[in-house]
């Protein structure tokens, strides 16, 4: 499902307001409550690098809150692609396919000079999404992809991303 124009702007404002008002997220697909230590470390490292690129100090709660608010506003992207899953299909079965689909969208967008940002925060409040975008109740909201033209001069879009070494990702069955 694609959202743009006035309905996207209305969604963006409501989604941001939910966050700023402290409303607890209730996504259709819950986020993991626990992460393996290696994933937690990688996630923390990316967050640290983002804040460094944005010159946001670790203890600056207000700047971090404003960054989160901008994220809930989709960083101003002019289009949001919503990845959904029919509720009769087991998520454990479909997540691989949806991940491949989302990655393909991102790669094709990049090929066309567009930027993408996968944002779980775009589906944190399904009632807000459905208030502004026609997503049937029988479809679970899985992920949103913000789409637009990136500002390639922005430090947050150019910082070096750390990659896991091959040995952490590949196990040879001998």
List the helices and strands and how they pair.
Blueprint: E1 2-4, H1 5-20, H2 37-53, H3 61-72, E2 79-86, H4 91-111, E3 115-119, H5 126-132, E4 139-148, H6 166-169
Antiparallel strand pairs: 1-2, 2-4, 3-4
Helix pairs in contact: 1-3, 1-5
Order of strands across the biggest sheet? 1-2-4-3
Class from secondary-structure proportions: alpha+beta
Number of helical elements: 6
Largest sheet, in brief, is: 4 strands, antiparallel
Question: Can I get a quick summary?
Answer:
With 174 residues, the chain is of the alpha+beta class. It has helices at residues 5-20, 37-53, 61-72, 91-111, 126-132, 166-169; strands at 2-4, 79-86, 115-119, 139-148.
Describe this structure in words.
This protein has 174 residues and is of the alpha+beta class. The protein is built from 6 helices and 4 strands. It has helices at residues 5-20, 37-53, 61-72, 91-111, 126-132, 166-169; strands at 2-4, 79-86, 115-119, 139-148. It is globular.
List keywords for this structure.
single chain, 174 residues, 4-stranded antiparallel beta sheet, 6 helices, 44% helix, globular
């Amino acid at each position: 499902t694609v959202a743009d124009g006035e309905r996207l702007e209305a969604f963006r404002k409501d989604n941001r307001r939910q966050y700023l008002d402290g409303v607890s997220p209730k996504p259709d697909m819950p986020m993991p409550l626990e992460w393996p230590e290696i994933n937690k470390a990688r996630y923390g490292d990316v967050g640290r690098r983002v804040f460094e690129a944005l010159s946001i100090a670790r203890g600056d709660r207000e700047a971090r809150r404003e960054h989160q608010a901008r994220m809930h506003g989709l960083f101003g992207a002019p289009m949001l692609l919503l990845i959904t899953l029919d509720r009769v299909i087991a998520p454990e079965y479909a997540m691989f396919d949806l991940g491949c689909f989302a990655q393909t969208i991102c790669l094709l967008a990049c090929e066309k000079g567009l930027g993408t940002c996968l944002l779980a925060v775009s589906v944190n409040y399904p009632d807000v999404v459905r208030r502004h975008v026609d997503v049937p109740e029988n479809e679970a909201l899985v992920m949103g992809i913000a789409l637009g033209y990136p500002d390639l001069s922005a430090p947050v879009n150019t910082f070096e991303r750390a990659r896991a070494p091959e040995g952490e990702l590949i196990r040879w069955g001998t």
